[in-house]
Amino acid sequence: DAGVTQSPTHLIKTRGQQVTLRCSPKSGHDTVSWYQQALGQGPQFIFQYYEEEERQRGNFPDRFSGHQFPNYSSELNVNALLLGDSALYLCASTPAAAGGTGELFFGEGSRLTVL
Amino acid sequence: AQSVTQLDSQVPVFEEAPVELRCNYSSSVSVYLFWYVQYPNQGLQLLLKYLSGSTLVKGINGFEAEFNKSQTSFHLRKPSVHISDTAEYFCAGRNYGGATNKLIFGTGTLLAVQP
Q: Which pLDDT does position A19 carry in this prediction?
C-alpha cells in the first residue's frame, strides 16, 4: 500500500517563475492538505482540498493556489516566486470520514529553492 | 489550538538517558494534540496523539506523552533514548470539532542523542 507520494522531490526556480507541485494521497484517502515548512520552522497550513474544492485556507497570499482531481490527487501552484517561498512543501492526506480525529499521513515533501 | 509552543529548540542527551520534550498550547476550546517526528530529508511521522480519555498516551518507539489541561501542556517523554531517536520532533494541535483537520505546529525540537 503506497503512502503519500509527492513530486518532484527537489527543484530550483528563479524569482518570478511559477511552480507546480504534485501529490498522490494514500489509498482510501480523499482529503489532501498542503503545508509549507521553512528552514528551521514547523509546517504551516496552506490549504485543504476535499471533493475537488478548497475547504479551508491558511494565511497565504493568492499566489498560492491548488487543485484536486477526481482521483483525489492534488497540485499546489505558486506564481511569481519570491526568495521567501524557498521551503519544503508537504502534502498530507486523511480520510474525510475520520473527521477531526483522523491521522494526517505526510509525504516526504518537495524541496523548492528559489534563486 | 490557537498556538503551540515548543520551549526548547534543541535538546542534547546521552544515549540511554531519559528525555522530556516540552510542549504548551493555547486554545479557547478543547483540542486534539499530536507529536510528530521528522528524520532528515523525510516527511513527518505520527508518534502519538491525544484525543480524549486517559491523559497518558503511549506511542511508537517507546515514547509517551501526558496531557495536562490545567497547565495546557503535552510533554513528550522517553525513559531511555537511542542514537536512532536523533530527529526533529514537532508538537501540533487541532481544535475539537473544527470543520477541517488543520494542524497548528510548534517550531520543533531537535533531539540530539550522543553516544
A: 98
Q: Does A66 touch chain B (CB under 8 A)?
A: no
Task: Work out the percent of chain B whose per-residue pLDDT is above 70.
Answer: 96
What is the pairing mode between strands A74-78 and A64-68? antiparallel
Query: Diameter of chain A by CA atoms?
Result: 41
Rounded Cα–Cα distance for residues B92 and B11 (Å): 18
Residues of B with CB under 8 A from a CB of A: 4, 6, 32, 36, 41-46, 49, 51, 90, 92, 94-108
| Measured distance CA(B110)–CA(B115) in Å, rounded | 16
Nearest to B7 by CA among B109, B114, B112: B109
User: For residues B1 and B101, is the Cβ–Cβ distance under 8 A?
Assistant: no
